[in-house]
Amino acid sequence: MALYEAVIGLEVHAQLRTRSKLFCSCSTAFGAAPNTNVCEVCSGMPGVLPVPNARAVEYAARMGMAVNCTVNPVSVFARKNYFYPDLPKGYQISQFETPICEHGHLDITVNGQTRRVGITRIHMEDDAGKNIHSAGDNASYVDLNRSGVPLIEIVSEPDMRSAEEAVAYLKALHAIVVYLGVCDGNMEEGSFRCDANVSIRPKGQQEFGTRAELKNLNSFRNVQRAIEYEIARQQDVLEDGDAVVQETRLYDAVKNVTVSMRGKEEAHDYRYFPDPDLMPVRIAEDDLARWRADLPELPQARRARFLEQHGLSDQDADVLTADKALADFFEAATAACGQPKKVANLMQGALLRELNQRAVAVDAIAMRPEALGELVRIVEAGLISAKIANDIFGELVETGAMPEAFVKERGLVQISDTSAIETAVDEAIAENPAEVEAYKGGKTKLISFFMGQIMRKTKGKANPALVTELLQKKLG
Ligand code: ADP
Ligand code: MG
Ligand code: ZN
Hints:
This protein has 476 residues and is of the alpha+beta class. 40% of the residues lie in helices and 21% in strands. The protein is built from 15 helices and 16 strands. The chain has a nine-stranded mixed sheet with strand order 2-6-7-10-1-11-12-13-14. It has a three-stranded antiparallel sheet with strand order 5-4-15, with no helix packed on it. A two-stranded antiparallel ribbon has the order 3-16. It binds adenosine-5'-diphosphate, magnesium ion (MG) and zinc ion.
């Protein structure tokens, strides 16, 4: 049995976060009633002229800069011709021979190994509408709200060698578009989606194998599972002595399989040609210079800074910088208390737990980063125990209350008053003579038994360090 190596290239579509469509002034808002964001241009009426959206050009160029591409000062829109009911013009406006960006790369690290993934090109194009098949009334409908929405397609070189690498690359791209603010990154709404080209070859062979293109991958997890399935499937095909055929395959997430959608024979001939209604896109040199100058700090740079400036572990830095909102929250909370490591721990524990439970992003909760910083500060100051902080965390997330006022109002402030604790210690000792004897006889582990008794008496509010100190004095 030969050993095989996978070869993977991704085509990623990201919807640009502009208010209006690529060639008309219709709104790009998601979720509007069908066919309400539609005009003569995006519904393909004859005799209309498209006008390019300058903001979309800017966003596409910024993305190119962020992934080390050359940005072409002149690029050309081309018609990609095909027939489908959701495409009223009969062609998609895309870029073919001269895209806006080319020759970039992105470095990813998987299991401590860094790999450079080439980015062949980034081009602009308009999205198609959406067909809705309604089983109930046995009819199909077309919603053109999405028709004409601006997209960039980011095409990679076939440089990835495993499903993990493909997902790491996709996550890195996702973080970059969100950091740049050029795409909202919402995968469920289809603002960020990808097709995966997968082939395998015997290890050591230079030449690529025949690829299948996988579609319908709408989450990171599905990308991972679909590629893994496809690699195994192609391996079975080759081991049976058959040949992999070039085709487009659809991923079925419920069954976790890929199924053939169309073969090479049915592949479209798109008859690309420059769109005669659109002038070449020209970008002025000073615009390019300005966009380059105000590129924000990108995920990899921020990760490096978190390691350096805040002394975080690799794992903390990975989790906290993958999501821009989480990274912003971390920095604001740290600014409020000056304890980066403690903030990171609380975010990775209690905060992520609460976000997962609610299935929301960090910018959708009432708790402000200053509140999390204050919580860290009052635990450090001994005002409340870490346990109480954890117990009240859900309520703080829910209400947005400031922790210090909250614990004072609830009477949760830790007892650090020696005489109050002493009373509880004395009681616990008096009530448990047998345990006292055993302790004195050498069973020093019983200290945690006494701690439990005292915590019960004080409703968890006794300062544990003081309790330990008093117990050792009185028992020892
Ligand atoms: P198409 O336009 O038909 O999809 P492209 O040449 O633009 O074809 O390639 C699309 C993607 O397929 C690119 O991301 C590229 O890296 C990838 N790719 C090309 N050849 C292979 C291969 N043999 N195995 C895996 N991926 C490949
Ligand atoms: Mg393709
Ligand atoms: Zn329109």
